Amino acid sequence: MGQQAGIKDILIAGGPVLVFMILLSVYCVALIWERYKFFKRTTGGAVEFLSKVRAAAEAGKLPDAAAFAKSHKGLASGVVMATLSGPTNRDERRRAAERASQRAVAELERGISTLGTIASVAPFIGLFGTVLGVMRAFKDLASAAGAGPGLVAVGISEALICTAAGLLVAIPAVAAFNHFNQKISQFESELRWMIDEVLDGLAERAHR
């Protein structure tokens, strides 16, 4: 009962800004979870898959590379197929493969900028709530005859709840933003290396 009263007191002290921060934290956690599941489903095993494709291309076993692509369920399979079966002209095939790569990366980037925005603005929203709380504390001090600094201290401590909430939302958002961007960068590099090596393999095969 006492814990319920404490949570109620915190919500009242934080006001509408704290309620907004709670809703923002729920949305942020849901977005991180959705992106985590999407990345796991679409890029899981991509490094090993692309390594097999590159090895097959280097050995001149392009049918094996195509078979690997057909059996792989992730985003990289479409890029491999575009590289293996695009236009006969090397430059046109490279452009087709790069377009497929850009589409795959765009799928991964969906929602990541939102995470970055939340990570950037959440501390400022929390600080805004704290400023409002401090202003309210000084107003209460001015209207309470004979009240000491203790009244201001209580008001400021309550106002700082919003700053803590802002940091609580921002920290996991920053960590997730950096983690997903690192994954996207690695995936993009793997695709680029695969495109170069497969096209080189096709060129060498054409000159034999």
Account of the protein in words:
With 208 residues, the chain is an all-alpha fold. It is built from 7 helices and no strands. It has helices at 2-43, 46-58, 62-71, 76-85, 90-109, 112-143, 149-207. The longest helix is centred in the last third of the chain and has 59 residues, at 149-207. The radius of gyration is 27 Å and the shape is rod-shaped. It starts with a helix and ends with a helix. 30% of the residues are buried. The mean pLDDT is 87.
How would you summarize what this structure contains?
The chain has 208 residues and is mostly helical. It has helices spanning 2-43, 46-58, 62-71, 76-85, 90-109, 112-143, 149-207. It is rod-shaped.
Explain the layout of strands and helices.
Elements: H1 2-43, H2 46-58, H3 62-71, H4 76-85, H5 90-109, H6 112-143, H7 149-207
